[in-house]
Amino acid sequence: MHMVLTKCCDATPLFNNLTHLTIESNRKVGWESLPSLLKNSPNLETLVLHGLVHKATNRCGDVCLCRPYKEEEEIPTCLSSSPVKVLKIMKFGVEIEKQIEQVKHFLETMPNLEQLILYYDTSFEEYVIEVSSQLQRLPKVASSKCNLQLISDQLSLSSTIPSSVSMKWTSLP
């Protein structure tokens, strides 16, 4: 898949049998082909992103926040039409503020998302709790049945987004 994401082509083939996709993020590689790939993967259920860093371009569509859109501008909608139910983000926590904004964007635009799993690269429990709290306070999300899981070396938190009364906390051995 490396070639698919680095080469933006005119016509992306249809991937009817693709149900699981893993993408290794890289600062030197943009996500230009990701909108087309998501659009042409009608049965994609699980998307795994190894990090959220990528080369900022103006051709990522609505997948990322590389390019801010003006209110009157029509935003491409590959995420809102994506069938992805499970989004796993590995190596979360490098540029935390930008990454939190990106995760909020996913939550606000992916209506079929049932589970978001963040593998937070930190040993500080308070950081995990703070990120969980920020994401639970989102005023609107695209999927009312999304379960958020934050996993770090020391702690695992699970809750429903938007915030529900119950929150499960598990200390890891």
TrEMBL record:
Gene3D superfamilies, per database record: Ribonuclease Inhibitor
Residue ranges annotated for the FBD domain, each copy included: 77-151
Name of the protein described by the UniProt record: FBD domain-containing protein
InterPro entries on file: FBD, FBL60-like, LRR_dom_sf
PANTHER family in the record: RNI-LIKE SUPERFAMILY PROTEIN
